[in-house]
Amino acid sequence: MQNAVYSVSEITAQLKQKLETTFPLIWIRGEVSGVKEMNSGHMYFTLKDAHAQLSCAWFAAHRRVNYNLTTGEVYPRITREIMEKGGEFICCGRLSFYPQRGTCQLIVENVVCSGAGALAQAFQARKEELARLGYFDAKRKRPIPQNPSRIALITSEQGAAIRDFLKIAKDRGLSSQIRLFPTLVQGKEAASAIARAIALACAQNWAEVIVLIRGGGSLEDLWCFNEQEVADAVYHSTLPVLAGIGHEIDVTLADLTCDLRAATPTHAAELLWQPRSELLSNVEAQKARLLLACENYLSGLGVRLKHEERALALASPKHKLAVFEERLAHCRHSFQTRWQAFLQAKEQALSELSRRLQRQMTPEKLDGTLAQVARLSERLGYLLQSRLTEQTQTLERLEETLWQVMLRRLEGRQAELEKWQAQLQGASPLVLLERGYALVENLEGELLRSLKSVKAGQMIRLRLSDGSLLAEIRALEGKR
Amino acid sequence: MEKVKNSEFKNFEKQFSRLQAIVQELESESLALEKGMALYREGMLCSQNCASMLENARHQLQKWQNGEAQPLNVEAEPSQDKASTREDIPF
To answer: What pLDDT, on a 0 to 100 scale, did the predictor assign at position A356?
Structure first.
C-alpha cells in the first residue's frame, strides 16, 4: 500500500486541529525571556526550561482580565516589568498552531508567578520535614463542628479576609458569637503573632472552632503561614482549626497542618454554616407537611366518626329488638312449615297402611286362614300322640330284654363262685390239719422242714387243727 | 473560662427535630382528637419558633483585646455608609 501524500496546508491544518483539541486549556511552568510589549497591549515572550522553549502570545483582551473566569478568583496583575525580572512563571492558555509560519504557539490567558526561588525551596524543605513529623497525617484531622455557635476568628481586623468571611456568614447559620483575635497576617512579626493568637484561643477554651483566614497575596505575603512557629501552633491546637488562606492555588503549611482546609476565607464561612435559606426551606417544608398531616388527620377523624355513628346505630337496643323480632318470625315460619310437612307425611303413611290392610285382610281370607290353623293344630296333636305310644312300647321292650340278660348273667356268676369256694376249701392247710397233719415250728414261728435246722433238746411247737402244743426233741433220726 | 449560654443552633435543632417527630406522629398514628390537636398546636409553635429563630438570627461580633472582649464593628462592604455603629451587626 502506498503512503498517503499530504499537501503542506493539509498537514498543517490537521496539526492545528489535533493540537487545539488535544490541549484545550493547559498550565505550563517555565522561565520567561524575550518579553516584547506592543502599543496595542499585546505581549510576546518565550517560555523555556533547560531543554526546550515555546513561543507565547498574551493578547491585550486577556491581559485585562486578571481573575479566574470560573471561580472569580483575583490574581495579582503581572506587568512587563515583573516579567522582565525573569524567574519562573505559570502560564495558563491554549496551544495553537500558526500555519502561515508553521510554528506552534501558546495563546496565554493568564500568568501567575511561580515563585520558585529560595522561598519555594525553603517551603519544600520544611514541608517535607513536617510531613515526616506527621503534621499532615489524615488520621489526626478532627471534624469541624457544623453550625458552631462560638468561633475564634484569627485574622487581621482590616483587610478583605474578614469582610469576605462575615459577608458570607451574614446569611448562614443561626446567632453565633464570633470572637476576633486581631493579628498581623503579613511581615516578620506576623508568624509569632498568629501563633500567640492561636495559643490564646486554645487557652480560653471558649470557642468550638478556630478559623484562621487571610486574603490572597504573593508567596512572600503569605509566607508567615509557612513558618514553623505557625505550623507548630496549629499542630498543637487543642481546638479544631479551619484554615482559609489566600486563593485556591495557594497552599501554605498552615493549610496542610490544619484539620480542614478551605480554599478561601469565603469558602471557610461556607464550610462552617448552612445557608439560612436552606434551613428556612426545611422548616417551611416541615410546616407544609404538618398542615397536610393535620388535614388528613382531621378528614380521617371525620371518616371514623361516620363509621362510629353507623356502628352505634347497629349496636342500639332498638336495632337489636328489630333483629330479634325478625329472627323470631323466621323461626316461627320455619317451624310451621316443617310441622305441616311432618303431619302431611304421617297422614300419607297412615292412609297407605290402611289401604294395604284393607287389601290384605278380607273376611274370606281370614276364615281360610283360621281353618288352616285348626287343621294344622289337629294334625300336630295326632302326630304327637302316636309318636308317644310308639316310644313307650319300645322302652318297655328294651326294659324286659335288659332284665333277662341281667338275670342270666347273675346266675352264671353264682355257679362260678360256688365252684371256686369248694376248690378253695380243699386247698386250705387247715383242711390238712383236720386230717391229722401238724405244722412243726420253732419258738420263733419258723416252719421246720429239715433236721438241719434243729438240735436235740430244743423246744418246738406243734400246730394242730384246734391249737398247738410245746414239745422237746429227744433225738434226731435221719433217713436211712 | 467563660460561662456560655446554650447554643442557639442546638435550640433550633431541638425544635426542628420535635417538629419532624410531630409530623411523623400525625402522619402515622391514629390519635385521639385532643392529642392530635395538641400535637398540631405544638408543631405550629415549633415551626414558628424555628422561623423566628432564623429570622432574628444575628451573629454577634466581638474582639479580644487587652485581655477582654470588646465590641467590634466591621463593615461588610467598605464602600457602604459608615453611620452603622450597632453592636450587633445583622450578620
So the answer is: 87
| Distance (Å) from the alpha carbon of A243 to chain B's nearest alpha carbon | 19
Q: What is the DSSP letter of A463?
A: E
User: Model's pTM, two decimal places?
Assistant: 0.50
CATH class of domain segment(s) A119-274: alpha beta
> What are the beta bridge partners of residue A30?
A89
**Per-residue cell: A161:** 479576609
- The predicted-structure confidence for A162-172, as pLDDT tens digits, reads as follows 999 999 999 99
In the three-class reduction of DSSP (H, G, I as helix; E, B as strand; rest coil), residue A213 is classed as strand
| Tens digit of each residue's pLDDT (9 = 90 or more) over A38-96 | 999 899 999 988 788 999 999 998 888 777 666 666 677 788 888 877 778 888 888 98
Best probe of the B interface among A155, A213, A287, by most B CBs < 10 A, is A287
Structural fold of domain A8-116: OB fold (Dihydrolipoamide Acetyltransferase, E2P) (2.40.50)
* Sequence ranges of the domains in chain A: 8-116, 119-274, 278-314, 433-472
Please indicate whether, in this complex, the C-beta atoms of A169 and B1 are within 8 angstroms of each other: no
Give the Cα separation of A126 and B78 in Å (integer): 37
* Cα–Cα dist A206/A149, whole Å: 10
Chain A residues in contact with B77 (beta carbon < 8 A): 163, 167
Where are chain B's structural domains?
8-71
Q: Do A178 and B65 touch (CB under 8 A)?
A: no
Interface check for A180 against chain B (CB to CB < 8 A): the answer is yes
ipTM score of complex: 0.77
| Contacts A–B by Cβ distance under 8 A | 132
